[in-house]
Amino acid sequence: QPLSAEQVKVLNRLLDGGERGFEHGISASQYQAVAKVSKATATRHLADLLEKGCLRRLPGSGRSTRYAINAPASSIALPARTSSQDTTTP
């Protein structure tokens, strides 16, 4: 089942980061405000995004539960290695 328009909107906000985004994840109540949906729909959408692997649950529970983009390690930009860090020998 494809993502809803509201889910896409929230994922885009999470990916944007910065002032308009959610650098420390998003809560169900914040999802509700951004997507303009009911609390029950926000909770359902978040559960669906978790199940699809789009989001991951951050530490915390209850009202403090927050969710963040579930980026695979391969998509995270790492600093380039310098030749002095190279441990291989010729």
TrEMBL record:
<dbReference type="InterPro" id="IPR036388">
    <property type="entry name" value="WH-like_DNA-bd_sf"/>
</dbReference>
<dbReference type="InterPro" id="IPR036390">
    <property type="entry name" value="WH_DNA-bd_sf"/>
</dbReference>
<dbReference type="GO" id="GO:0051301">
    <property type="term" value="P:cell division"/>
</dbReference>
<protein>
    <submittedName>
        <fullName>Cell division protein Fic</fullName>
    </submittedName>
</protein>
<keyword id="KW-0132">Cell division</keyword>
<keyword id="KW-0131">Cell cycle</keyword>
